Amino acid sequence: MPIYQDQILAPLPTHAQFLTFERKLGGTAKPSLLALQSIFDNDSMLVGLGVSLMKTFNCVIEGLKPMPSLQSGAITIPTSHGALWVRVSGSDPGETMFSAESVIQAVADGFVLTEQVPAFTHRQNRDLSGYEDGTENPQDDDAIKTAIIKSDKRGINGSSFVAVQSWIHDIKHLKSLPQTHQDHIIGRRLSDNEELDDAPVSAHVKRTAQESFTPEAFMWRRSLPWAKNGRCGLQFVCFATSYYPYEVQLKRMIGMEDGITDGLFEFSRPVTGAYFWCPPVDASGLDLSALI
Ligand code: HEM
Predict the structure, then answer these.
(1) What is the Cα–Cα distance from 193 to 14, expressed in whole angstroms?
(2) Domain limits of the chain?
(3) Which residue, of 10, 118, 124, 175, has the greatest Cβ tally within 10 A?
(4) 203 lines ligand 1 (CB under 6 A)
């Protein structure tokens, strides 16, 4: 039986809702977490806990911290944090919405919803820009090694760190650019996903080439497109055994290494960002033994 939350490695769902919560003033977190544990479904839910929540339980998860706000030139990477993060998913948008509602109700005494993002897959694994996303994700055992923490400690073994970031796209601007320019922003050809040898150093896949970092910076990406109130973008989600891959890649993307900015910023910007720790599972469901 897997000891990690199945949805970390499962294929991307066709529909999802991303829910972020903060602690409710005067509320108590423990009964809400137990209520969440009682409705947890490993086939359709992903749960992450923020560092502020862990502090409530005097629990220190080595490596868990608040997402740092980074800045370079004209780019600021905002952070929004969060005490609790849940992704519910399914094949039907209505059922997924109702699952989200049951989570919100289950934790209502201890947590207040601060963000709800409806997400979905687009033409299998494509970002709304049209480009395939996830091609260079590690495969099979490498994916497990990349995303899932191995530890001697029960309650930690099988857990994972996740970085979540909402990006807003300006698709109209992107699609007004010549096709070659768009391909050079990503570093891959839209038509066949081929990596371009002649892409500029600012191309996204050149900035983030995982084996080009020392040490190498592999991550397991599970991002999904989102759309709400006339805006759209990518809910960037990456899992790893530490925040090292996310941080070194983002620093290079915003030009902190060499002053060169990732082409993505020509049409997209992150507007929220938070780190969470995804506890493992055991035979009875979500394993919260590290904190309660
Ligand atoms: C608007 C936000 C983003 C979009 C639309 C986007 C899209 C893409 C696309 C289309 C690819 C090429 C195919 C693939 O290998 O998946 C890619 C690769 C990649 N992206 Fe992103 N991405 C975004 C944000 C980020 C961020 C914030 C990071 C890290 C902090 C990141 C890390 C990576 C990595 C590691 C790769 C694979 C690079 C390689 O080893 O070839 N991406 N992304």
Answers:
(1) 21
(2) 6-286
(3) 118
(4) no
